Amino acid sequence: MKLPPRPESTPGQFEGRTPAEAVQLARAEFGRDAPVRCWKTRTGGVLGFFAREAFVAGISPPAGAVKAVKTPRPAKEPKETKEPREARESRAAAPPALAPPPPARASLSELVEDTSDELTLGSAPVPAAVFSEVLAEAQAAVNGADLLEHHAWPAPVKATPVHATPAWVEGLDDSLVRIGVPAEYRPPGPEATFDGLARALTTLPVAPAVPTEGGSVIVVVGAGRDAQAAAGALVERLGLESSVLLPVECTDAGRQRVARRRSSNKVTVLVVEAALRSRRLTAVASWLEQVMPDYVLGAVPATAKRADVEHWRAQVGHLQALALSRLGNTASPGELMGLLPISTLDGEEASTLRWVLTLLRATVERAR
User: Fold this and answer.
1) Phi–psi pair at 313, nearest 5 degrees
2) What angle do CA 220, 271, 229 make, to 5 degrees?
3) Which residues make Cβ contacts (< 8 Å) with residue 158, sequence separation at least 6?
4) CB proximity list for 75: less than 8 A, separation 6 or greater
5) 19-30 pLDDT tens trace
6) Mean pLDDT (whole number) for 41-59
7) Which 3 state secondary structure label does DSSP give 297?
8) Are 175 and 366 in contact (CB under 8 A)?
């Protein structure tokens, strides 16, 4: 048999990649009956880790040898005996034997102290960072998992939410009185806070939803500029096409035109001119009774007096809600609160938050 090329070895010692290869090289030199032994050595690496493992065979152990590697001759295989059928069936029915428990993992310090492998370092200095990395990787290999899984990291501390007490606002009730907010929508003395104001404003009447089914007729009644602005904002807020906005006169022709729109199952938004002090209020009310709209929205400026709006409402007839405009032009934007449900403030949908901001802005402006 042709032997593999002999690696570089010291005199009397033969190195191989496996014990069999090293022994074969040594016996080729000393003879088949020579007392050849084989030892394992490790060279290179850092601090004994990540070194190259090799096998050396010879008469005497080399320097740095760890332990002898026994290379027993293969024993003769015993002749196969026929197993009785009862024994085979009994063995098949027996539960599988449990695997032996894995050996306990040694610590890094124990492994370093117990090792006697040969360590060969080059002449180049080794940076300290290399030792840290090697020790970390070695400990990870010992633990058999990622380093992060074995660190005793402290458990995260959950932050406790802090619920601050709402700040009491001095003179809040007096300020709300001055801008026209009725008593039922002002927070009581002990709750004179912004949170208390928001809670009080949640009791305001809510405007009913505007119908948008086919054939619905919606009327916006008020002074010309206010009614036009409120109708345009309503159409945009409801996502309707601009073609649903229909200017009509309070005449029989106008009433018939509305009837044709309703029969064609089209939504119609009418703008009816009727200012607060108009002399046509009675005629407008009569025309609305004939048209029988599904929803009537009153467009009034926030500068209007409460008494004037109450009189106008009585003249026009039934109104579902009010659309307030020009809130920045009055020092008392709360004047009309509670008279009727208020659906919009300057074209924007009325809400508790919008009311809070409107009233606070008015109190600041009045205090200047």
Assistant:
1) -60, -40
2) 75
3) none
4) none
5) 888 888 888 888
6) 67
7) strand
8) yes
H-run or E-run covering 43: strand 37-43
Q: What is the pLDDT of residue 82?
A: 56
Question: pLDDT per residue over 213-249, tens digit each?
Answer: 999 999 999 998 999 999 999 999 999 999 999 888 8
Measured between alpha carbons, how far is 222 from 245 in angstroms, rounded to an integer?
Answer: 15
Structure-block tokens of residue 211: 């119908």
- State both tokens at 342: 């208020």
Q: Residue 112 contacts by C-beta under 8 Å, 6 or more apart in sequence?
A: 47, 48
Q: For 14, list phi and psi in degrees, rounded to 5.
A: -130, 125
Read off the tokens for 177.
Answer: 């009185």
Give the Cα separation of 211 and 123 in Å (integer).
Answer: 91
Q: Which residues pair with 38 in a beta bridge?
A: 57
Note the pLDDT tens digit of each residue in 134-157.
445 545 554 544 433 444 445 555
- In 10 A of CB 188, how many CB atoms? 10
Mark 207-234 as b/e (b = at least 16 C-beta within 10 Å).
beebeeeeebbbbbbbbeebbbbbbbbb
pLDDT exceeds cutoff 80 at 105: no
The pLDDT score that the predictor gives to residue 57 is 81
Pairwise CA distance, residues 299 & 227, whole Å = 5
Rounded distance between C-alpha atoms, residue 267 and residue 257, angstroms: 13
CB 320 within 8 A of CB 234: no
Which range among 3-7, 84-88, 190-194, 254-258 has the greatest average pLDDT?
Answer: 254-258
- Per residue in 35-48, pLDDT (tens digit) is 778 877 776 655 55
Residue-level pLDDT at 206: 93
b (16+ CB within 10 A) / e for 333-351: bbbbbebbebbbbbeeebe
Q: What is the Cα gyration radius of the chain?
A: 49
Question: Are the CB atoms for 34 and 61 separated by under 8 Å?
Answer: no
Domains, the chain, with CATH or none: 1-71+111-120+136-143 (no CATH), 172-367 (3.40.50)
Q: Are strands 217-222 and 268-273 parallel, antiparallel or unpaired?
A: parallel
